[in-house]
Every structure is written in structure tokens, then in C-alpha cells.
Amino acid sequence: MLNNTGFDLWADNYDESVKVSEENNLYPFAGYKEILNQIFNIVMEKKDTDVLDIGFGTGVLTNKLYENGHLIDGVDFSAQMISIAEVKMPAANLMEWDIVNGLPAALQEKKYDFIVSTYALHHLNDEEKIVFIRELLSHLKTGGQLLIGDIAFGKREQLEACRETHLKSWDDDEFYFVADELNTALDGVCACEFYEVSHCGGVMVITV
């Protein structure tokens, strides 16, 4: 698993690495553009919203929302990626932070129309993800949505099949979403709708 130093070193060619994987329809980034596009389109159904991006990276998605008038807060643990994103979004509120520690104190009193996260939450283990997702849900306005685009599967069997196909490149230090298991974990809080985009990726929409 890459730590923040690893992501700093990867920052300058991160987008190119994603492009190669996506264009060849390979794990882990097959469907990447469509996943980001679906999230973009959902947010764009409303104007001038407050958006929190968890793990915004180089700002591929967030910059498009920023350019369309949405107010952006963001957290990421790579200082180098933040530097790249700040050039694109000088007025955004971008913070260096490790989500293993939840949200930073500066955001604890804030509420958002949308909280988005793409290809970041799989760095948390399954238990940490649920704790963090519950925290994020508490920071949504009424009717707000948590939009997660990531390496994800509808059922555990699909994850295992993908793992068998990509054993040589599979990262056992990452923890991928299984939609029906997430729904079970969130039972009684809210439901998660899962939209499969590729054999290893999709979008999860959680509404409060």
C-alpha cells in the first residue's frame, strides 16, 4: 500500500498511470472516466453547492466542479498532489490530512450538499470505512448525498473472481467495496445504491 510519501512520488504521473489502466479496461482503473462522469453529473443537477472531496488527488473531478461554481473543501494526504490541485483551484479550501484520523477539526462544524470520494476509501479497512462513512453522513445537509466512486463490486463473488483474474497485480493491502455488504453494515442508517460501471468499479450513492 502506498503511504503519503509514495503518493507524493507518484503524483506527477498519477493521471497517466490511471489512463493506461482505464484505456486497456484493466484492474484497478477500468471505467475510471465514466465513474467520475457519473458523480459529476449527479452534483451538476444542483447549482452552487457545498462539496467536500475526500482524497481529491490532482483534482481531476473536483476541478470540474470548481469551474462550474461549486464551493470546494477537500482533504488529501499527499502534499505534492495538493500542490498540483491548488494550481487548478486557487480559491478552494484544500487540506493535507490522513482520513485514518476521521475529518480534521476545521471541518467538524460544516455541512455539505455533497461529499464525494473517488479511489480513496479503499485505503481504509472494512471496519474503518464504515466508521468513516457514518462520520461523513453526519456532515451532510438534509437530502445531501455521499457519492463514492471506487474499485467496487456488487457481491463478494465478483470481487474474488476479479482477484483471481488479476493475481499478479492485485493489491492485498487495499480493501475494496462490496455493495451488498456495505448495505448490511449501514442497515438502519440509510441504504446504498450501487451502479456498476466496469468489472472492477462502480458508483455508490448514499442519501440522507
UniProtKB/TrEMBL annotation:
Keyword field: Methyltransferase, Transferase
Pfam families according to UniProt: Methyltransf_25
Protein name listed in UniProt: Class I SAM-dependent methyltransferase
Highest taxon of source: Bacteria
One biological process term in Gene Ontology: methylation
GO molecular function: methyltransferase activity
PANTHER family: TRANS-ACONITATE 2-METHYLTRANSFERASE-RELATED
Domain Methyltransferase: 51-144
